């Protein structure tokens, strides 16, 4: 079991837990009382991606002290020009988190294209398969195998390649702070629930 603790000072990233809109940074909820360690649930239905409602993924409150999501119930999405599938596990829209936690699946020789995050740290935990991480201008990858963890700091251009010609790559990814990632995923193309083979692979 991997445990990650987020301090209050980071959870209230710059005093605001924000879910940015597609057109740029509308605040969905904020910290009313900066002495409090608990965020205020102020989700505005106009800010919540439509697919959360369409796929019946709404939550009554995102201020519960804990939450359980089962792997077999996770939905997957694809971003434009990307062939990996992303299954949100926890995100700001449903859980009031300052991060997004997802399962990412790359088909054999699949690629997450080069990109960067202005403020976010991105953590990749390799659940199964191999991940070649390319940083900035380097042509030499850092290779993570099952059980390895890769960290990319803000403002670093990076891409991930599944070098295997036969096996899928499964990763748990965490982006902190969320920036616009959760919005992009929920506005992506719906690609169904995690397949039976994927679920079996993850929980066996």
TrEMBL record:
* Matching InterPro entries: Cupin_2 (IPR013096), Flavonoid_dioxygenase-like (IPR052538), RmlC-like_jellyroll (IPR014710), RmlC_Cupin_sf (IPR011051)
Record's compositionally biased regions (Basic and acidic residues): 32-43
- Pinpoint the Cupin type-2 domain residues: 104-174
Species annotation: Chloropicon primus
Query: What name does UniProt use for this protein?
Result: Cupin type-2 domain-containing protein
Supply the Gene3D superfamilies for this chain. Answer: Jelly Rolls
The annotated region (Disordered) lies at 21-43
């Amino acid at each position: 079991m991997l445990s990650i603790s987020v301090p209050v000072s980071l959870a209230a990233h710059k005093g605001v837990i924000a879910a940015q809109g597609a057109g740029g940074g509308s605040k969905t909820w904020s910290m009313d009382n900066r002495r409090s360690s608990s965020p205020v649930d102020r989700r505005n239905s106009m800010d919540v991606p439509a697919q959360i409602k369409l796929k019946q993924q709404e939550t009554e409150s995102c201020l519960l002290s804990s939450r359980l999501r089962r792997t077999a119930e996770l939905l997957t999405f694809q971003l434009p020009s990307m062939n990996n599938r992303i299954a949100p596990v926890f995100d700001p829209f449903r859980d009031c988190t300052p991060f997004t936690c997802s399962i990412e699946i790359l088909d054999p020789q699949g690629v997450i294209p080069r990109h960067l995050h202005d403020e976010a740290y991105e953590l990749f935990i390799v659940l199964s398969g191999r991940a070649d991480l390319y940083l900035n201008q380097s042509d030499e990858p850092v290779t993570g195998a099952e059980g390895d963890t890769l960290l990319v700091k803000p403002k670093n251009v990076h891409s991930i390649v599944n070098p295997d010609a036969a096996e899928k790559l499964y990763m748990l990814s965490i982006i902190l702070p969320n920036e616009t990632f959760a919005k992009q995923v929920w506005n992506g193309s719906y690609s169904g629930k995690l397949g039976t083979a994927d679920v079996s692979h993850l929980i066996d």
